[in-house]
Amino acid sequence: MTTRVLVAHPQLADSTSQQFFKASLPKTGVIWEHLDAQPALDVAREQAQLRQADRIILQFPLYWYAAPASLKQWEDTVLTRTFVYGDHRYPLAGKEVGVVVTTGMPAKAFQRGGAEGLTLDAALAPLAAVAQRAKMTWLPTFAVHQFSYLTEPQKLQLVIDYQRYLTQTQPDTLANRQAWFAQRLPEMVQQLPAAQRPTGELITTTFDQQRDALEELADTLAMIKETEDD
Amino acid sequence: MTTRVLVAHPQLADSTSQQFFKASLPKTGVIWEHLDAQPALDVAREQAQLRQADRIILQFPLYWYAAPASLKQWEDTVLTRTFVYGDHRYPLAGKEVGVVVTTGMPAKAFQRGGAEGLTLDAALAPLAAVAQRAKMTWLPTFAVHQFSYLTEPQKLQLVIDYQRYLTQTQPDTLANRQAWFAQRLPEMVQQLPAAQRPTGELITTTFDQQRDALEELADTLAMIKETEDD
């Protein structure tokens, strides 16, 4: 799977959250692009890259309840009508589109009666409408509120959650999470220093055992449910 | 009253609707500005002009369910947090903000189940949230769908409706409409060629008479209602 991350931020170097995300990118399968860094958008090239991606991530800080102007410029320029739905061809159909959005306010601000007075879903409705017009699949939004207040353990968790958002099979079910970890654990263990590797291998073994146990449990539950339905 | 019209359109000269609006501007009380024409926004100047305006009109074609990038650039640059709500000062509080939006689709496309799948209100929700944050008064949107399909009589009507949206006292009640016309009719008649002026004066007289008759009717209705309420 190829994931294309399009970052819109006018001062990327000054953004601790964007630098954090950049350092957290998975090693493979992800192409990262900073829209504001391009003097002029190469429409043909951008469109070709969209065609090649399976998942497109739009990543930005929320400015006035929307993406920064550079993302809108990208939309207005790259997403021509002919490209998106001309002649009833939909080259983006079926591709996934996800939004990674940072905000300076707590999550509770984004609701009726909250300080911002509208939900993130309402703020992102115009973007979701573009996805709908292109017959793309909209992923649940990945929102990070008040990044600078996160603790170190929260940041470690954020690295994993972010990587999963970029590369894990959706929807975000237990089975898909397990499969994602199972694929990455051996690689992670191999990257550990020699002294810590036995611990890493133990974790892998425990993970596999628990996964088997969970699958058995799921089978049992399914059986019970089947009996009840009769 | 001073109305400031901010137009966002990347190709203004090619836009028949924007050229039509420009030609339809009231002669006085309106300051018109094309955002895309400015090489760099003068933040202090833009902010000063916002302070001086009573009504701010954001005028643009709907691109991907939002304003063109130039308006977002203006928001991101001119509407600094300090300016809009810093130190609990709200310099824009109480000012009216209205949107004049043109779309290439019929009105019915903008609803659930319609071709666009979302309402104009939903598309403009991020802008309305900015207005709310600034404690401004949001006016009902002035939408023009498929301008190029309008007939000549519809266009004549559009001139009047557009001028009223820019300068008439809100809300758009019969009394406010009448007051707006009463103020402009003598001026309009004076601008007529000499041969047509008697007709114009007749229209003014008829308008005044009908206005008096309407007021009497309103008084009578109010009296009847009062009796019923007892």
From TrEMBL, chains A, B:
Keywords, in A-Z order: Oxidoreductase
InterPro entries, alphabetized: Flavodoxin_fold (IPR003680), Flavoprotein-like_sf (IPR029039), KefG/KefF (IPR046980)
Domain Flavodoxin-like fold: 1-155
Keyword Oxidoreductase annotated: yes
A Pfam family hit: Flavodoxin_2
Gene3D superfamilies: 3.40.50.360
TM ranges: none
Protein name as annotated: NAD(P)H-dependent oxidoreductase
A molecular function (GO) term: NAD(P)H dehydrogenase (quinone) activity
